[in-house]
Specification:
alpha+beta; Chitinase A, domain 3; Serine Threonine Protein Phosphatase 5, Tetratricopeptide repeat; 3 domains; three-stranded antiparallel β-sheet; 21 helices; 7 strands; disordered N terminus; rotamase; peptidyl-prolyl cis-trans isomerase activity; transmembrane
Length: about 525
């Protein structure tokens, strides 16, 4: 694997890490390669470090957003989903901002809970990422053993002559902010988990009530103390004593038994819960547990813990994550999001304008266009702004402006079959069929060998009234469809041959299962 390929590998790890290791390691070798000029590369590098939004007190750069977007795109690819077009990336960046907002809400929740991070904590976190995630990839790339020390890695890097060191890789390739978030997450999760009581308790108790009318507190206490003395004298008789003397109708007939109290013991009164959590299996409270509440009941408890059924680690983790989610959701509204880049603001306006599919908010679309106007051509290396304008003009039913924007997009970002189809569709809607056919002719030149694309071109030719063009596109569609079917059949045959047992001969048309 090349060092360039390490970026894709390491992005799969749980800790988000910054891109750039290939540039550090290979700058001397590859600096002059590629289509972009030096000026363009410098401009793109500066753009990547530009602050495009603020989330709480955190200044968010485009590089930070694009790192999250890259991870999302990789996940999409795992499910066979195509890479999003460049003109849609600001929508994905808005999603990335939602992720960052949740992360900052997590940080706020952790800090509110009294959790702090020292410089030493962060350094240890960075070192852990290096040791567990990055160093194995670097040692493999440098053909070093897995057990190679940092000194040995530094020595190998020095031989490459490009100035790279272990510390430089850590600084450039590990995102300290991501490390902080993970540390806050781990500490807050542990704190939440430690406070949860998820074990199930098998408990017996005796309750002696007072109401201040028929029974006074003093009388109830005297009776309870007498019962406690009996329990201490004959612990095995706890159930019998409860049946004879407890004032709790829910457990009296069962010898005071509450079997397997669960789920954080939320139903228990605080005094009962506190006393129970101090007991070990087989123990009984040595003192009376007093509870006084005129709205429910007042009385003295004698509590015996029979047994504890420990909750599984999986249950604890799930419960802790649930509580953590509640904390983050509660903190999120307090995290202010400010968009500073016009492209992001335009994407936000478009999303808000389209919330109600039955009624597009034209004012918000107008604001989106105004934001896109702020983007200078030199700031839009991918040339996506005209395409974004065209889509908005379509939503506003402004066909002429949409067509002009699509034509501008061809100059800005290159000629594409989809752009030509869009223009043709708008021209057909206007009744300008001749110009639509001209656009479709150009689309044919650009069309990839994909049956669906040619089918769509054929449909548009039909709407434009060009029967010859439609027939031509249909023939091409059929040819490509047949070719696909042949390729699939060949792949199936190859797979069947690969699965054939050694020495087995499979005749044409023979059912292998027979």
């Amino acid at each position: 694997m090349s060092l360039m390929g390490m970026k894709e590998k390491i992005q799969k790890f749980a800790i988000p890490v910054s891109v750039g290791i290939a540039g550090i390691m290979l700058a001397g070798t590859f600096a002059g390669m590629g289509r972009n000029s030096t000026t363009t590369r410098l401009r793109e590098a500066a753009k990547a470090e530009t602050t495009v939004a603020k989330v709480g007190s955190l200044a968010v750069t485009q590089r930070m957003l694009d790192r999250i977007v890259d991870q999302q795109v990789q996940q999409f690819a795992m499910f066979g989903m195509p890479k999003p077009p460049a003109e849609a990336l600001d929508n994905y960046r808005l999603r990335a901002l939602d992720v960052i907002k949740s992360q900052q809400a997590l940080v706020a929740s952790a800090q509110k809970a009294g959790i702090t991070l020292s410089d030493d904590d962060i350094k240890k976190g960075i070192d852990e990422v290096w040791e567990k995630q990055l160093r194995p990839q670097v040692t493999k790339t440098l053909s070093l053993p897995e057990t190679a020390t940092d000194k040995e890695v530094d020595a190998a890097l020095a031989k490459s002559g490009n100035g790279a060191t272990v510390e430089l890789l850590k600084q450039q390739y590990i995102d300290p902010e991501a490390v902080k978030i993970k540390l806050y997450n781990d500490k807050l999760t542990k704190q939440v988990a430690d406070k949860l009581t998820l074990d199930s308790y098998k408990v017996r108790h005796i309750l002696v009530k007072w109401d201040g009318k028929t029974t006074t507190e003093a009388a109830a206490k005297a009776k309870a103390e007498k019962l406690l003395a009996e329990v201490k004298a004959t612990p095995t008789k706890f159930g019998d004593i409860a049946k004879a003397s407890s004032d709790d109708p829910g457990s009296k007939d069962k010898g005071g038994l509450y079997e397997w109290l669960k789920d954080d013991l939320k139903t228990l009164v605080p005094e009962f819960k506190a006393a129970l959590e101090k007991l070990k299996p087989g123990e009984t409270t040595t003192e009376l547990v007093r509870h006084a509440d005129p709205k429910s009941y007042s009385g003295f408890h004698i509590i015996h813990l029979d047994e504890i059924s420990k909750a599984s680690d999986e249950k604890r983790e799930k419960a802790a994550q649930g509580e953590l989610t509640k904390l983050v959701d509660a903190a999120a509204p307090g995290i202010k999001l400010e968009l500073l880049a016009p492209g992001l603001q335009a994407a936000q306006y478009v999303q808000e304008a389209s919330k109600d599919p039955k009624k597009i908010d034209e004012k918000l679309l107008g604001k989106a266009l105004a934001e896109l106007e702020k983007i200078k051509p030199e700031e839009d290396s991918a040339g996506t702004t005209p395409l974004r304008k065209a889509v908005i003009f379509e939503q506003l039913k402004q066909s002429d402006k949409a067509i002009a924007a699509y034509q501008e997009a061809i100059k800005a970002s290159g000629d594409k079959v989809d752009t030509r189809k869009k223009i043709a569709t708008l021209l057909i809607e206007k009744g300008d069929k001749a110009d639509a056919i001209a656009q479709l002719t150009e689309a044919e030149k650009l069309a990839p060998p994909e049956p669906d694309i040619w089918f769509q071109i054929g449909q548009l030719y039909d709407k434009a009234g060009d029967k010859a063009g439609m027939a031509r596109a249909i023939v091409k569609n059929q040819e490509l469809t047949k070719r696909q079917q042949q390729q699939l059949a060949a792949q199936a045959a190859a797979a069947a041959q690969a699965n054939k047992k050694p020495g087995e001969i499979q005749l044409p048309g023979e059912d292998k299962k027979k």
